[in-house]
Amino acid sequence: MRLTKSICVLGLLMTGASLPITACAQTTPEVVDSYPKQRLKERAEEERRAEEARRAAEEAARASVPVVQPAAPLPAASSPMGMEMVVIAPGQGQLGSPSSEFKRARFENPLKTTFIDYAFEVGKYEITFDDWGKCVADGGCNGYRPKDGGWGKGKRPVINISFNDAQSYLKWLNRKTGQNYRLLSEAEWEYVARAGQNTPFGRDGRGINAKVANFDGKAPYTSAETGPYHRKTQPVGNYNANPFGVHDIYGNVYEWVQDCWNPNHQGATGTGAPRTDGDCKFRVMKGGSWVTHGYQMRAAARVRYVTDYRYDDYGFRIARTLN
User: Fold this and answer.
1) Which of 60, 188, 251, 277 could cross-link with 184 by S-S, CB 3.0 to 4.6 Å?
2) 110-130: per-residue pLDDT in tens?
3) Residue 60 pLDDT
4) Is the peptide bond before 110 cis (omega within 30 degrees of 0)?
5) How far is Cα 323 from Cα 312, in angstroms, rounded to an integer?
6) What pLDDT score does 69 carry?
7) What is the spatial distance between Cα 191 and Cα 193, in angstroms, rounded to a whole number?
């Protein structure tokens, strides 16, 4: 524009014309969206609508899945060494999380439907210091006496427990009872945690606060209200049980499960069996703990640790397949 005006003025001076300089002014052409730019806008809108449709489909897939009750009555729960167990019916569940779930991690891919076609029982509570003490007093558990962090023992969940420690406890328990108690598989754990729902927290839906679990209540999940942060474990059973009758499935202490570590659920069988492929130097832990934020307690959340590592928020609960 400036160059055009300069040439025009120079031409007038050379010819001696006396026209006003405004005669050389150029009209600014009207700018319209080019085809490529308009197409990019349309494509962005199409992608937005497709994303909304995908999220809606995923939300529909997360709708409540009724627990399939077996035709025959369920067997009664056992009570190994005085511990209370809860019987879990066969049914359909979920492993992993959809891409729309807030604060999810890539380790939770892909979302899978699981089918557990057998009944099993699971500890109503996490293993406590009292439970562990019976093992040590009877010459089991390699004589290991875990520290309690100064918080007290008794009915608090036992802490500073490695995967190997949990196996030593199970070895003792099975010798005493003649049964085959074990850890939950990751698929079983998520099935128990969701208790018939396909939401991040089962009955508690898409958010969780410190009224229903022991964790860092200052960091609840999504828009849930904030609450207290006790900075230590709480005695088992202080919070209400989930619909399956299991306490502290979220928070209090992380729980070891039997599965070897895999970076995702590709290759998972879709049954309740633990994964024995992958890197078995690492095992999976679930459920979050007294120190974690709300999103770390989601049913799909998972972390890995080496089998001999102990920490003050590592514990476990037991399970057993029922014939």
Assistant:
1) 188
2) 999 999 999 999 999 999 999
3) 54
4) yes
5) 36
6) 46
7) 6
- The pLDDT of residue 35: 53
Contact of 251 with 219, CB cutoff 8 Å: no
Residue 31 to residue 297: CA distance in whole angstroms: 54
**Cα–Cα dist 277/306, whole Å:** 15
Average predicted confidence (pLDDT) for the chain: 87
Q: What is the DSSP letter of 136?
A: H
Exposed e or buried b per residue across 267-290, where buried means at least 16 C-beta atoms within 10 angstroms of its C-beta: ebeeebbbbeebeeebbbbbbbbb
Q: Is 63 helix (H, G, I), strand (E, B) or coil?
A: coil
Q: Is residue 118 a contact partner of residue 107, using CB atoms and an 8 Å limit? A: no
CA pair distance 130, 207, nearest whole angstrom: 32
Q: CB neighbours of 110 closer than 8 A, spacing ≥ 6? A: 96, 264, 265, 266
* DSSP E strands, 108-188: 112-116, 120-123
Residues 19-43 as b or e (16 or more Cβ within 10 Å = b): eeeeebeeeeeeeeeeeeeeeeeee
In angstroms, the CA 131 to CA 136 distance is: 9
- Helix H, strand E, coil C: the string for 257-279 is EEEEECCCCCCCCCCCCCCCCCE
Distance CA 236, CA 29 (A): 76
- The verdict on pTM exceeding 0.90 is no
Half-sphere exposure for 308 (CA within 13 Å, toward CB): 1
Q: Which long-range contacts does 130-135 make (Cβ < 8 Å, 24+ apart)?
A: 130/154, 130/155, 131/81, 131/83, 131/158, 132/158, 132/161, 132/169, 134/81, 135/168, 135/169, 135/172, 135/173
